[in-house]
Amino acid sequence: MLDELAALGAKPLQTRTVAQARTHPTPSDAVKSLLAKQGKNTAPEAVGSVEDRSFPGPGGSIPIRIYKPAGAGPFPVALYIHGGGWVIATIDTYDSSARALTNAAGAIIVSTHYRQAPENEFPAAHDDAYAAYQWTLANATSLGGIAKQVAVIGESAGGNMATGVAIRARDNNIQRPVHQALIYPVTNYAYDSPSQIQNRDAAPLGTTAVMWFYDKYLPTPADGANPCSLCCALHRWPTFPRQRSSQQTLTRCDPKAVRMRSGWARQVCPLTTETTPVLRTSSSVWAPC
User: Fold this and answer.
1) Which SS3 state, helix, strand or coil, does residue 35 take?
2) How far is CA 172 from the centre of its chain?
């Protein structure tokens, strides 16, 4: 996949302008290209239904996409926050992740976009993610979901924002997520984790690229210490009760499991070991890389 991504013209993100990065080939593009070369189906994974909507957020209208599994509900619900370093990518970029989660978890997935940097610096994306969580709570029942079973899922920078949502829900005394599913989340602004040191110049996402994203999103380096931005204050990390196997929860994704998706992820992902301190402080985190 990495070879195919390079063949599509991918360059180190830290060498790109924001405009170039936003039109940059993605790993999803590489996977689809490989499947097409192998004569395999590249159509999106089928789910029960997909609906594009929007809701008014703190800085304007926020696009969301609602995925529902096939069959009769009500279903558990999860807010899914896509990655992209707070700068690039959209709900379209991460469509395959949301579809797979819908089917694997048997849950309604609300995939949200958010304002992005550098046009909108911290805390704009985090504020939008929290607004999307509040919207999901308020609309879970009307969507055919179970209002008391709402989780948060985030990938990369989205994993960072998912935990930011959980922290704010706890501190603001509103309904907490029943689970956090954190997929190679950003949790360390210090650049000193073993995977960040080992994968400083890795492709397609090395530590230098992570630094490029931080530079675009944070108004000042001091903002990196904000527990709702980069979750450095691990003593503030929310904990959640463990809930085990039920068709009506998201526990098909074991909340304590740390799984490596593939061998290459261990070798090139600068975020691999960032989940370790998270797991030490949270009893209900699913954090594959």
Assistant:
1) helix
2) 22
Cα separation values, 132 from 37, 55, 162, 266, 286, Å:
38, 8, 11, 32, 21
* Rg (alpha carbons) of the chain, rounded to whole number: 18
Q: Partners of 225 in the beta sheet? A: none
* Closest C-alpha among 150, 139, 48, 136 to residue 99: 48
Which structure tokens are listed for 232? 């450095």
Residue 279 near residue 231, CB atoms below 8 Å? no
- Rounded to the nearest angstrom, the gap between the alpha carbon of residue 261 and the centroid of all alpha carbons in its chain is 15
Q: Beta-carbon neighbour count of residue 264 at 10 Å? A: 12
pLDDT of residue 201: 76
Between CA 117 and CA 164, with CA 179 as vertex, the angle to 5 degrees is 30
145-155, strands of its sheet edge to edge: 49-57, 60-68, 108-112, 75-81, 145-155, 180-183, 285-286
Supply angle C-alpha 8, 27, 128, rounded to 5: 125
- C-alpha–C-alpha distance, residues 52 and 180, integer Å: 24
Q: What is the pLDDT of residue 227?
A: 59
CB 87 within 8 A of CB 217: yes
Low-confidence ranges of the chain (pLDDT < 70): 227-289
Distant-in-sequence, close-in-space partners of 180: CB < 8 Å, separation ≥ 6 = 151, 152, 153, 154, 162, 163, 166, 238, 240, 255, 282, 284, 285, 286
Pairing of strands 180-183, 285-286: parallel
CA distance 50 to 273: 34
